[in-house]
Every structure is written in C-alpha cells, then in structure tokens.
Amino acid sequence: MGSLITEQDFQPGHGRYRQLQIKYDPMRRAVWYYLDPRDRPCFNPELLEELRQFQHRVVSLVRQAEMRGQPNPINFTVLASLVPGTFNMGGDLHLFSRLIRDGDRQGLFRYAKACIDVLHPNAVNFDLPLTTITLVQGDALGGGFEAAISSNCVIAEEGIKWGLPEVLFNLVPGMGAYSFLIRKSRPDVAETLIMSGKMLTTEDMANLKIVDRVAPAGQGEKAVLEYMDKQRQRGNARHALSRIKNVVNPITYDELMEVTKIWVDAALRLTPRDLLLIERLIAAQNKRQSQAEDEAPAEMSRAMEGRG
After folding, report:
1. Among 137, 143, 120, 138, which Cα is nearest to 47's?
2. Are the C-beta atoms of 96 and 114 separated by less than 8 Å?
3. Alpha-carbon distance 186 to 183, whole Å?
4. pTM greater than 0.85 (yes/no)
5. For the chain (length 308 residues), average pLDDT per consecutive 10?
6. Mind giving me the DSSP string for 151-197?
C-alpha cells in the first residue's frame, strides 16, 4: 500500500527545520528525526522548539488518519543524530551559566520546561499506538543521556560513552534522568549514576538494562530496522503492553515538572566556583563541535574529571 504521508508533511508550516532533518520510511511507517544542532551539539532553545513542532506534527498526522478511518501512518519514531561521534552533549550550558549569574529563575524554568515538553511526549509514546526509539551512535552526556533514554526502546552502538556530569559542578540532572532510570533499572542504580558523574560504555548501560539493544559500531541503523521489522509482527501486543506500563508505572508530566522546580532551585544556589566548572564543560562542548571526532572525547573526559 502506498504511503499516506510524505517527509514534507512533518515540516513546520513556515518552511523547513534548521536543526532537524526528517526521513520517512513508508514501508515501515517510521519517521526518523536527526538532531543537527547549530554552534554546539546541545539542546539549544531553537532546537527544543523545533522538536516540539515536530512532535505536534506526529500527533496531528496520526489523529487526522484516525478521523478519516485511514491506517495509522506512523508506527515508529526514531530519534538519532547527525553530529559525528556525538548523540548530544546535553543542556545549553552557556545559557545556564548566564541565567544563573543573572539570578533569572523564570528564564531557567522556561528552558527546563521546554525540555520536559519534548521529553515527556516521547516517554509516553505521544499517547498513540506507536513505539518511540532512540538510536545512539555517538556519546550521550547530561541532557543527551536523558533524551536518549526517554524512548520506549534504546538501541546503541558499541564504544559509545554515556554520563551524567552535573554532579561535577554540584548539580543533578533535572529533566527526567531519575524518573526514566528508576523505571528502566532500579532506584539505587539511578542514584549511583547521578551521584558518581562517571562515564559508562554502551555495554555498561546494557548490563544495567538501560540500553535495550547493542549494535556493532556502524551497524546501528541496521539494528533499528531489524527491531522494527520484528515488532511489526507483534504490533498489537506491543502497543497493549505499552499502555499497561503507562497505567501501572506512569511517568506523568506533573512528576517531571516538580523535579524541574527542584532543579531550578538547586541551580540558583551554585557558587562562582561551580560556574567556573560549567564554563570548562562549555569549552569542551565547543571543542566537540570543532575538533576531529577522535580528539573530542578525550577533551570532554578531561573536562568532566576537572583536568586540562
């Protein structure tokens, strides 16, 4: 059967996205959306707004098909990245630092809410009969870690580095890390990952049941396609189980928002020394954007360890 929608249907009304690239697979009814952030590989406000618009298009297209009595045009969404060696390095630390120095509580809250507004729909599969997938082919730190594990299924390539570095500048992640981790693993695992600030490998993440499937380096897309082909045979069962999980152990928007408020309060208590450590990570993010792929991970590791 031919596709009912095209890639153009996912674009915003005013034109095309600047920091997202969209690919639609009509055979599997899967829409891939690739992060392509400007300046630094982080979740800047414009990228967050484009993600929100994209998600609204997904919901709108499925609802329109339902109203017309047409087949669901989207069985899967796949979040991935176009940045070589990097999935995402997390929050916009340059913005964080400025807002904290200015004591701008409302600005911090607006940014944190923008993150929750895109992570929560992904975590609950948009309240639609579809499966959300993350494909991780590069390092995922901080908010990048949180975004990656917010999907129903996480597929990652070998050799990837994962970490929650916020504790190294006396803060904790506040956009879903704890909520997502305790549902994928255990509360003690979540606390250890958050409070250690250590880097983990994809293999470590799989052993902790946080990554669902490990693919050989360079074979991540193939692994996603194989997963989707297998799940299409069990689509009804998969969607029913997803709904049951959302009933029995829900991740609510209110929960994430309450955590965000705690994060904002904690961020505003950071000291000048803490902010200097944030600026060290900003420099590492900048180098990750500009350096060759094989040089950047070492720079980020030194920054996270307070060296260099």
Report:
1. 143
2. no
3. 7
4. yes
5. 76 88 96 94 96 97 94 96 95 93 96 97 95 97 97 97 95 96 95 96 97 98 96 82 88 97 97 91 70 44 46
6. SSEEEEETT-EEE-GGGGGT----SSHHHHHHHHS-HHHHHHHHHH-
